[in-house]
């Protein structure tokens, strides 16, 4: 679908890429990986045509469509959510408007016998057939399914987009791109603004509906669940691994070990050759051999070894006071925001009747859809907003709070290094450069002033600063949004070894796995407590139905995730659910068979679309009849799919 040949990109003395070649095929699910600054986002921009390479070619067939979601984009603010999303079907809506206009004209006119009226009827008929071929009657349902999958409620559809945060507006842009059904999807950090349920919906969509995907993401679970191929940008070239990310890590380690052995052998060969040249350089009897060795040395192509920092960066929190046994106790907690429309209206209840106790040393996760009250609860703890009920902060509790707005409190006139140097104490003062490197501020970057940093860079710096402060209660609101996978591991290990208490608001399953022992689920105005880790909650609360009796949870989680949740069910529990699981599997098969039939019908529909658009086939009644019958069959099968899906949903309750 896309062919890249001899690609070279030069920004400075050293090329970013040199002579890179690869092909993106249909059904490829590619993870584009590499250290920060390797050129992943640049590669996506080149693939979609927004940036030109220094040399080389990017070949895309004329009939191949490409959809691109950047990390940051200009967002529209002048429409409602549904109106903005409907722009994905601009061609369809133009025809729809034209049909309505012609319908009105036919209703108003009375010259039924005139030639112009006959022409109007013929134009209407032609346009209506074209409208039906484009799936005109189904696009509204598609819009609603996609917006719902990405976390919007029906009440949100009519709200102006300007009422939503940047993260929610990015979801609208993602919905528009997905609805256009491009042949190749290019996604740069698509999960940054999604909650766990929306991420899982996107995983299923990409697995079932997308033709080809190239994505950049630091969400390890998402990458493993979606991709089947890994392209690594390293040392200015691309290494192609036709495996998932976890398998790539194993192969990459083996490859680097081979590189090191080859590098060491080459260095020994170079050293031996140089020693021979130096030893016999001035002996006339060895002149021929010396010249041969010099030429041999000149022909050696140096072996490059991937730059990988294998040194473990251990971050230890500074000593702090011991807090009371119960840092947080909430009783009948309630938060209501005033009505936006009427000052004396009932307002919006975010949550109510919340009773929870967090013990000293516990690491807990706050999860749930965006807008359900996770950050609001944190603000109540911090005393930033009023609330009803009781919220007790324990004795000697020293809170370290990280949220995205913390980045705005940094001193803009300090450098990165100075910012951390002012809070580092003890042995960490000797490891500031190592610490900055672990969070992607290594080398000359550490001398940059805070005022020139991007929002993401400021967030990372605010995170490092927090980790060096003597606190005994951490509250981290989406701490991993701007971190790469190695940086996440440093942060995760630091929190695991932290003696104090921690609340982590996050949608990153891999980060939370093995870190938290309790999950608080926010939703529907309630806060529910779940004992166990993140995958226990995913299994028990989200009711991920097993495909077989070993409790494999299918395409929603990776093979690594399956290992985490495939604990053997207790005997009584298993016996109780066995019959139900059999019904679920039968319903699941019905849904899958229906989806396969729909896919087959849609494929033929696309073929007929292409045929009927050719002038020579415009009057082929055989094709028109087949198209009409196929559309009817497709509508019936879509209805069947809805019935089967509702049956499956009922069984899962």
What structural class do you assign from the helix and strand content? alpha/beta
Q: Indicate the overall shape.
A: globular
* CATH class descriptor of the domain at 328-540: Alpha Beta
CATH topology of the domain at 328-540: Rossmann fold
- What integer is the average pLDDT? 82
Number of helices: 20
Q: What is the straight-line distance between the termini?
A: 42 Å
* CATH architecture title of the domain at 328-540: 3-Layer(aba) Sandwich
Overall description:
This protein has 653 residues and is an alpha/beta fold. Among the domains are: 81-166, no CATH class; 261-299; 328-540, P-loop containing nucleotide triphosphate hydrolases (Rossmann fold, 3-Layer(aba) Sandwich), CATH 3.40.50.300; 571-652. Helix content is 43%, strand content 17%. It is built from 20 helices and 18 strands. The chain has a 6-stranded mixed sheet, sandwiched between helices. Strands 14-15-16-12-17-18 form a 6-stranded mixed sheet, sandwiched between helices. A 3-stranded antiparallel sheet has the order 2-1-4, with no helix packed on it. Helix 9 packs antiparallel against helix 10.
